Structure formats: C-alpha cells, structure tokens
Amino acid sequence: MPTIMLSDVNICFEQHGSGPPLLFIHGYPLHRQLWEGQWNALADAYQVIAPDLRGHGESESGVSPHTMQNLAQDCFDLLEKLGISASLYVCGLSMGGYIAMAMLRLHPERIAGLILTATRSAADTPEGKANRDKSILLAQAQGAKPIIDSMLPRLLSPKSLESRPEIVQTAHEIMSSISVNTIIKDLLGLKERPDSTSLLAASAQPTLIIHGADDQIVPLAEAQTLQKTIPGAQLTILPDAGHLLNLETPGLFNAAIRQFIRKIPHEQE
Length: 269
Ligand code: MLT
What we know:
By secondary structure, this protein is an alpha/beta fold. The chain has helices at about 35-40, 70-80, 95-105, 125-140, 145-155, 160-165, 165-175, 180-190, 195-200, 220-230, 245-250, 250-265; strands spanning about 5, 10-15, 20-25, 45-50, 90-95, 110-115, 205-210, 235-240. The chain has a single domain (about 5-260), classed as Alpha/Beta hydrolase fold, catalytic domain (Rossmann fold), CATH 3.40.50.1820. Helix 2 crosses helix 3 and helix 5 (about 145-155) packs antiparallel against helix 7. D-malate (MLT) binds near residues 27, 94, 95 and 190.
C-alpha cells in the first residue's frame, strides 16, 4: 500500500479510480479497510482516497494528539502531497464525520459536498465525557480488549449480528488491530471535540446525511436533528443497518452517494 510522509508520520492510504476526488474518513477505533466496499464500487466514477488516520491501520502514530483539527489537517496534508488542490467530496463516518466537520471549519472553500454518516454535530455531554474517561481508565488498566468486546455488538444492526458472521468478523478484525495507545488518543480527541452545530447551520455546502435505522451508537434522532440544522441537507435512512452502515448495506450506501453527487451543479465539482 502507498504511504506518504506528512509532518511527523508516514500515512498509509488507498487511492483508486479517477474523476472528482472523494475522500473517505473512517471512525473510531477502525481503519481504512472499512471503506473497501466503497473504493471497489465507486472508483469507476471518482478518485477515491481512504487514509488510515495516524495511529490506525498501517499509519504511524506520531506525537500529536488526535484532536479532530489535527486529524483534519492530516487529511489536507495528504491531499496536498497527492497534488489534489481542487475542491472535493468528503465522507466521514462517526469520528470521521467529526473530522469532516473540522475540515469544513479549516477550509470550507475546499469542500464541494459533505457526506456525514453515523455522526452528530454536538460535542460530548458531561455524561459522555465521563464515559470517555471511564473507557480511558479501562483501556489503561486492561488494554484494548474490553473496549472492543463491549463496542462490537453495538456497531452492527441486530440483523447483521444474527445473520452476517463475515461482517462481524471484519469489524472485529479491524478493531483488534488498533493499539491501546491509539484508542486512548482517540478517546481524548473525541472528548475534546468542539460543537459543530453553528458551523454546519451556517454552511453552504451541499450535504447528504446517511444513517442506519438501527444505529445503537448514534441514535437516528441525532441524524434527524442534523438534517434540521443544515440548510438543504438530505437524509437517507438505510434499513437493517447499524453504525457501520457502509459495511452492512454497501449497495444502498454507494447508490445514495452517487445520486447525491450527481445532483450537485457541475461548477461546484
Ligand atoms: C465512532 O464510531 O467514530 C465513535 O464511536 C464516535 C463517538 O464515540 O462519538
């Protein structure tokens, strides 16, 4: 797999196809493989780029904290190294969605369209922050396993859990490869992330929200709130899909993306 040296880390990434650039940003505690069903299908029309965020997958860890702003800057630095200076489509899942919002905050002129999936605009509540602290203490004391074991059943829809062992295995394999150090850095970054509600409310970018009807980590109501927040945003709800909806229902997920981008006026590409 190609790697590129950014400020302090080698970043591993996928790059497939040609056409308008379409960046996929994975969530916590995952890596680029999450998007295999997207780069395989969408590379016929787009230049698909899917990095391993620092510390995840085959990317190096470096010393910087995993704030959403730092991770967003890594994405821009990667694009610059790849010679992509045009505006692009950005699709982020969950933490990847928070990073997409941080990209919008840093350089709105670079974003031709936003695809926010299994994510929310709000910052962590005090209870949410306390839960991050508990997870950090658990990870420090017992390693990554208890975090992964408790998260796995909540990542997928009941249908996927019952009848799609290959998806359960893929999600487990991806998460099991993430180090405890990365899990702790992600949790700190997630806990400190800013509220992006007013940023999105003022944004002019075409936005598609895709959400799993059975998401147990970010309830559907949060996606409905997100849609009301963002002017003109479209919400597509995928049945029998949970938090990893792109893995669970790739056909519907990819079709929603194609349809969304097709409707965006050409001059914004
Ligand atoms: C993710 O899936 O990226 C995280 O669960 C997001 C979060 O905990 O807020």
